């Protein structure tokens, strides 16, 4: 079996669902169920013996060794993290705790477990760490996209904490020989995305007649990656990645935030027109910019394409349409998320 951490979050739950759809190998899912963890994402596998869910912290130095010895996973895929830049600006401590200290304790638990495996299991074992393009800092309009050798220059407490965790993972390979792999991906979007991030927030706000908040001038650029493409990249790196290497994963979809939201509005105008016949674009509202807002991220995903033969399947246009349709067709999921802790966060951030 494999151990997935953070498997009740946005990307982790998509990964678990895809894994169980494509493989008979079981998943042990360790997630603390913070505000971002939502077991409802995995309700289709509630009674599936191939999915074992454990509520717990990656930094728990009693629980994690016990789980490793009981279930003997052949791989760990580490999604667990605090992941929202704005939250890291309001309160960085949880980010240091989970992303840095938690990853450190997880690495220690895994190192001890791995050291006791027999030679074959030791050779076959993998620790795959899921990271972000934000560790590379920000780009100007004409800069080349981030490659795996771009120096780290994180600008937010979130990206700094992820950078620290990446360095620890790297060091555990270099120093102890732990068989690690790291992926640095761009902004994901798709089903089960918690509505604090730009795309799901604007989708839900649009449908609820609320404003669509654009930070600053709305011209910040992100490189959008459909979450299922990200999951397939992780499976590929897990199966074929070179030990100790990092792989950048991107969608080759650089878009300015305002263009992203305009596209969302146009798809909604077509699929669920406003009653007054106006475009959802009238709800776009420019608000105060994020402090230290990174201007542009762009991933050069040539290495993973050349070395591992992975390419994204979705363009932004096809992926965003699928995403809008998913949200329209999954109103109960949306309602449950909106009635939870998310509301308190909304008040703190926007009111
Ligand atoms: P998310 O916030 O939706 O989910 C994180 C999950 O981790 C939640 O289920 C949460 O309960 C769990 N978690 C948090 N702290 C934990 C702890 N101490 N122990 C165990 N579980 C804990 O995040 P996501 O968007 O799914 O991101 C997953 C990973 O991908 C993160 O490492 C993130 O940095 C990285 N990433 C995300 C994006 C993106 O666009 N979402 C882009 C690049 C990289
Ligand atoms: P976000 O989804 O928070 O991801 P990240 O900060 O990790 O890139 O934000 C994506 C972009 O959208 C980023 O440039 C900030 C911007 N943004 C807004 O303009 N308004 C919003 O309400 C949010 C949440 C983000």
Search tags:
single chain, 351 residues, alpha/beta, Rossmann fold, two-stranded parallel ribbon, 13 helices, 44% helix, binds nicotinamide-adenine-dinucleotide, binds thymidine-5'-diphosphate, lyase, NAD
Q: In a few lines, what is going on in this structure?
A:
This protein has 351 residues and is an alpha/beta fold. The protein contains 13 helices and 13 strands. It has a domain at 2-190 and 225-252 and 294-314: NAD(P)-binding Rossmann-like Domain (Rossmann fold, 3-Layer(aba) Sandwich).
What do these coordinates show?
The protein has a domain at 2-190 and 225-252 and 294-314: Rossmann fold (3-Layer(aba) Sandwich). 44% of the residues lie in helices and 15% in strands. The chain is built from 13 helices and 13 strands. The chain has a seven-stranded parallel sheet with strand order 3-2-1-4-5-6-11, with helices on both faces. Strands 7-10 form a two-stranded parallel ribbon. A two-stranded parallel ribbon has the order 8-13. Nicotinamide-adenine-dinucleotide is lined by residues 5-6, 8-12, 30-34, 36-37, 57-59, 79-83, 98, 102, 130, 132, 162, 185, 187-188, 194.
């Amino acid at each position: 079996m494999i151990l997935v951490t953070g498997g009740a979050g946005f990307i982790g739950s998509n990964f678990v669902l895809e894994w169980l759809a494509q493989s008979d190998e079981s998943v042990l899912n360790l997630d603390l169920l913070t505000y971002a963890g939502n077991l409802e994402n995995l309700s289709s596998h509630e009674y599936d013996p191939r999915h074992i869910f454990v509520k717990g912290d990656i930094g728990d130095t009693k629980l994690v060794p016990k789980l490793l010895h009981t279930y003997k996973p052949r791989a760990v895929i580490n999604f667990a993290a605090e992941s929202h830049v704005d939250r890291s600006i309001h309160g960085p401590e949880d980010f240091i705790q989970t992303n840095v200290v938690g990853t450190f304790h997880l690495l220690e638990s895994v190192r001890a477990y791995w050291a006791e495996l027999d030679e074959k299991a030791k050779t076959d074992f993998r620790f795959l760490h899921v990271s972000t393009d934000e560790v590379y800092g920000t780009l100007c309009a004409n800069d080349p996209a981030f490659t795996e050798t771009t120096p780290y220059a994180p600008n937010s407490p979130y990206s700094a904490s992820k950078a620290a965790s990446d360095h620890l993972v790297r060091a555990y390979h270099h120093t102890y020989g732990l068989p690690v792999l790291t992926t640095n991906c761009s902004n994901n979007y798709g089903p089960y995305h918690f509505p604090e991030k730009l795309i799901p927030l604007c989708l839900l706000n649009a449908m609820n007649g609320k404003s669509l908040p654009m930070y600053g001038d709305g011209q910040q650029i992100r490189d959008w990656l459909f979450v299922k493409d990200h999951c397939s990249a992780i499976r590929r790196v897990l199966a074929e990645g070179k030990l100790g290497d990092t792989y950048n994963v991107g969608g080759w979809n650089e878009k300015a935030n305002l263009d992203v939201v305009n596209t969302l509005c146009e798809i909604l105008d077509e699929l669920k027109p406003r009653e007054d016949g106006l475009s959802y674009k009238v709800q776009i509202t420019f608000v105060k910019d994020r402090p230290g807002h990174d201007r542009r991220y762009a991933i050069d995903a040539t290495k993973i394409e050349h070395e591992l033969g992975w390419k994204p399947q979705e363009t932004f246009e096809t992926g965003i349409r699928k995403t809008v349709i998913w949200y329209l067709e999954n109103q109960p999921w949306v309602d449950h998320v909106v009635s939870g802790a998310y509301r308190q966060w909304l008040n703190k951030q926007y009111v």
